[in-house]
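Problem 12. The chain below contains 107 residues. Write out its predicted structure in token notation.
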Amino acid sequence: MRHSIPREAAGDATEPRIDDERLGATQRELRLEFPSVTPDEIDMLVEGIWMHYETARVRDFVPLLVRRQAREELREILQVTPVPSGSAPEPRSRRPSPHRVAVQQSW
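Solution.
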């Protein structure tokens, strides 16, 4: 399910199309990585985070930042914490994201 994200500061006519392609690619990648989360839930999370960067002047790193934050939030929600071999996990202490959506576990 794709939603059109409003672009208040779109300067170039090709910029919205490129952003839509990058948004879609980010959503597809996360759907493959987190198959236990519904596509709609991933789309809502990614779009909410993406909107945070709508006014960013430099757009090149927006997909990376969105993907990283969404991946972190999904792992936290699903309680999947990657641990490097031979080390103990670091305690997580960060404030909750305003973009978090309720993800129902389907396992």
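Discussion. Residues 14-78 form a domain with the Helicase, Ruva Protein; domain 3 fold (CATH 1.10.8). Students who got a different answer should revisit the alignment rule from Section 12.3.
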